[in-house]
Write the structure tokens for this entry.
Amino acid sequence: MKQDSQIIIFDTTLRDGEQSPGASMNKAEKLRIATQLEKLGVNVIEAGFPAASEGDFEAVKKIAQTLKISQVAALCRTNEDDIKKGWEAIKDAAHPRIHTFIATSELHMKYKLSMEPSQVLEQAVKSVKLAASYTDNVEFSAEDGSRSDPPFLCKVFEAVIDAGATTVNLPDTVGYAIPEEFAELVKYVMENTPNMDKAVLSVHCHNDLGLATSNTLAAIKAGARQVEVTINGIGERAGNTSLEEVVMSLATRPNFFPQTTSIVTKRIYPTSRLVSMITGILVQPNRAIVGANAFAHEAGIHQDGVLKNPMTYEIMKPETIGLSKNNLVLGKHSGRHALNSHIQEMGYNLSKEELDLVFQKFKNLADKKKSIQDEDIEALINEGILRSSEVFSLEYIHVLSGNTVFPTASVQLNINGRKAQGATEGNGPIDAVYNIISKLTNTKSELLRFTISALTEGTDAQGEVTVRLQEDGIVALGKGADPDIITASALAYINGLNRLEYLKEHPVVKPENL
Ligand code: KIV
Ligand code: ZN
């Protein structure tokens, strides 16, 4: 392998990322993220797990039919049904990939699969052969690879490469590996899999010990040529390796890492925001690269240094990841054209109808708020477009509250085209609003979490509310933004209820231990 080769970026935000609790997305939302990932320059997009649910199948199919540049991968267990269904979903893609997996560790084979190693080997080979009969782009993953017996791992990899696998993936499924040890394993696999030159070696790390990025970088150094990542590091449990950390490590330290990627780094920040908006999973402020504080200098001595020469305390330029220095741009008098070009600069491409909708909302907001910032515009896009197919929507809200009255809320909703209105009291204004919405929608979800923050600075800032709801064991997140925090709370609650409805209609059959 050439040490200076380009690393293949395999993004699994739409599959492993969607396994973050409450992060399920609908078809339109997944398509929007997939389109953005393609623009970001991702080489392989794992669009979903078609056998998991009808909703996932439909979303993967739509993504496969739409994307023209990135490869579109479908995850399948090593069985005939999954692989047939997976292929059915991606067969129209310009560059389809079947990704099939089975566990290879002693622990998983014995307790989870109740299979002998020889049976696992046989099933892996059979499935790869079937996948290879559909496409010459087949990936095989040895689940729990980092805890598998290395000689057995190599035996499986050798056999699946002979059967037609063009990528073999070594996952640290439970985030147990330590960088030096993981690098040793990568080297061992490369040296002890005789036909390794016929396939790409990939790694897929989880972040249970906070080492996913370190392990991935160590693997790159040891010779891995594909890395599996997600935006903002979202994913099962503590998440996956984050795309932005790996890509920016390579870009910032070219002397240490001769490898490059095809990622358009200035689209990293808009993509991070989009994923956060759609999934409702907030990015922690101190998160590397994409957190709100990642480029904020608090200490006077640092600020002084940065003014004299940014490189004193900034190892990356904010513009490199698409963070505009001055995002205060639009106001009441800005026209459609200015709004559209700014939206495009932010990384979004809206249709004419979508722009009409966002422009209308922009004008309404500009009446209430003097200066409109990027965060406001993103919230409008989220409100106006990403929520197009909804069961419930808010028509009006009126709240009475204060220190001398009993909080009361009157709300009118549109429920599948029908108007429903009512009023009720509560412990506080938000409680009153949630009580009446729950009554009108006839839903009984439990509010697990409620958070509120200001989208921008200033007292006229929009409030952004995130809720986490649970009903019948299903968890969904909801988000809403508005200058009126009670309205923002109502929008977040309604958004969460819409997501719960979607999940009820599209139940995800979670395959064991994915
Ligand atoms: O973590 C894991 O092992 C996976 C595989 C399906 C690649 O997500
Ligand atoms: Zn995983």
Notes: The chain has four domains: 8-279, 295-322, 323-385, 392-505. Residues 16, 171, 173, 204, 206, 236 surround zinc ion (ligand 2) (CB under 6 Å).
